[in-house]
Amino acid sequence: xxxxxxxxxxxxxxDNEVRAADGINIHIEKGEFVAIVGQSGSGKSxxxxxxxxxxxxxxxxxxxxxxxxxTMDENELAEIRNKMLGFIFQQYNLxxxxxxxxxxxxxxxxxxxxxxxxxxxxxxxxxxxxxxGKERNYxxxxxxxxxxxxxxxxxxxxxxxxxxxxxxxxxxDSRTGKEVMEFLKVLNEEGNTIVLITHDNxxxxxxxxxxRLHDGKIVYDGPSDAxxxxxxSNVSFEDDPLLIKKREEAxxxxxEYQRAMANGITHEEFDAYYEELLKKREAERAEAExxxxxxxxxxxxxxxxxxxxx
Amino acid sequence: xxxxxCFILALKSLATSKIRALLTMLGIxxxxxxxxxxxxxxxxxxxxxxxxxxxLGTNTITVSVSGRGSSRSISPDDMYxxxxxxxxxxxxxTPTVSVMGSARIGSEGYSSRITGVGEDYLTLKxxxxxxxxxxxxxxxxxxxxxxVVGAYFNGMDAFDGEALGSYIKINGYNFMIxxxxxxxxxxxxxxxxxxxxxxxxxxxxxxxLSRTSQISSYTVLARSEDTITAAKNxxxxxxxxxxxDENAYTVTSMAEQLDSITDMMDxxxxxxxxxxxxxxxxxxxxxMNIMLVSVAERTxxxxxxxxLGAKPRHIKLQFVIEAGTTSTIxxxxxxxxxxxxxxxxxxxxxxxxxxTVGTIAVSFGVSAMIGIIFGFLPANKAAxxxxxxxxxxx
Lengths: 310, 394
What we know:
Strand content of chain A: 15-25%
Distance between the termini of chain A: 53 Å
Strand order of the largest sheet of chain A: 6-7-8-3-9-10
CATH architecture of the largest domain in chain A: 3-Layer(aba) Sandwich
Structural class of chain B: alpha+beta
Helix content of chain B: 55-70%
Number of helices of chain A: 11
Number of helices of chain B: 12
Oligomer: heterodimer
Strand content of chain B: 15-25%
Radius of gyration of chain A: 28 Å
CATH superfamily of the largest domain in chain A: P-loop containing nucleotide triphosphate hydrolases
CATH class of the largest domain in chain A: Alpha Beta
Number of strands of chain B: 12
Radius of gyration of chain B: 33 Å
Shape of chain B: elongated
Number of strands of chain A: 10
Largest interface: A-B, 25 and 22 residues
Order of helices and strands of chain B: HHEHEEEEHEHEEEEHEHEHHHHH
Distance between the termini of chain B: 26 Å
Largest sheet of chain A: 6 strands, mixed
Number of domains of chain A: 2
Largest sheet of chain B: 12 strands, mixed
Number of domains of chain B: 2
Order of helices and strands of chain A: EEEHEEHEHHHEHEHEEHHHH
């Protein structure tokens, strides 16, 4: 149903290359309930935009129902979104000046379905999410949970192949959030394919399968009840700035230790000696800084000093 | 998503911000109203003018003889003869001599239009006698001191309703009133206007009252509208034969004059309407501005619609129709306001100011077009929005 093959999404921010999706391979079968999980910046939004046909990959192919959508133009993508995808957003994204009924009818309107059928189908979906009798209300007259149910009804109205839920509980309190998740579970049991995008592990476990992303790469793909699903085992801290700093400090200390030993300072004396040394270095640096203020081009000097520090 | 649904949607979106919609429309309303008022007044003036010309007789031709560049002359008898020869196109002809002078009744002076005319003047101007008789051939031939006066004179204190048979002193000569005309206008202003006139035999006028004894102008009545040209040609031929110089006379038909005056009026009214039309252009820019703001405000809505499957053209159509609806409603309001104001103004200046159906149709069309044209740029901007960025917008 959904097949992402070697998908890359690369942005350029100035000279920097940002790989929001870095060789992603995903295959999702019909009737699955998949959660795509990751921290912010992990590339899950990019992934969701590509799966949702809101964006096309820089490289790689995306097959939706066997159709290659990775090279489609704007109009074709709009049609695919309309016919095959149902969106549930964090902020509900209902149009405030349309009634609940009209909001649910919106995807059907763009599909060119005649008004009689539109009314029927929208009514049916609203009944399904338990909002019968609220058709003439405006979104602002409903609670958050009710609004999210309207957006679920809207996602269902077009009878899509895939329901894409982007942080569907993000704006809800935990109780209503739970209700919404239960409802998604029911929808999945009825045979709907659901792709859930979230950063929240407690929400993600509702899904049967979890795909965890980190830095644009898949770090876990498996059942949600397996041990690796929730714990982020594959993450390396190699490029953690705090870690790098600590390591560098340790390296410098080692160097000084070797030097101190050669100069006949004992192991017991070293701690005090090193403290003294650091203080002395600090004082020197302060002095250098003070003198740098007198130079005509402090900026250049600053750069030099920064270099010497490393 | 068809045009009708877009239209309903546009009305809804206008209804949610009524004051803004009204302010946006204001430019169109004022512009269209101004155009309607100007066109109505132009229309009223043109109608009034042609009415006036009709009452003067559109079949009349005026001849003015200056005799410039030629020592020859043409006598009234020659002109009468010419008219006789061309009686299939010319109905009647009369010499006209305007008299510079004043009339006195007893010891009181009056200012009045005094004209020396021939016996056919009555027919030519379609005047009717109230009492007495009109000037006749004998009056002309014998240079009699007789005159016919307008109905205004009957109402004067000096005559006490019995002007007939009394005397009027013109430039020192006594003229007997032999006839009184029926009144032409119902209301008399202070000077009596159309009914304040004295008609004397042209021969007498030329001899006694005019500065030159030459008779220099004639009025010719063509048999019908169709013979105006023939009559005019006949007159011109006769005059050319007499003077052998085209500069010695001028012949103009009322129909021609009316045409040239209405042409001039049309040009003037069109120019004024175009100036008023500039305000429509400004109004269009106003609409464009508001639509751009509206697109910026509704970025999220556009994102939602796109995510749900709206194609760029759907979004474009929605915004173009919204702009078109705004300007069309403004246009209709402007037309209504313009018609009402034209009426009020018309009543005030005594002119029937009603716009033509064409003017209303054009105003309606132009205002709709303005919205569509100026809505196009904002609509395009909306259609081009990236759905991801649009959805992220707050």
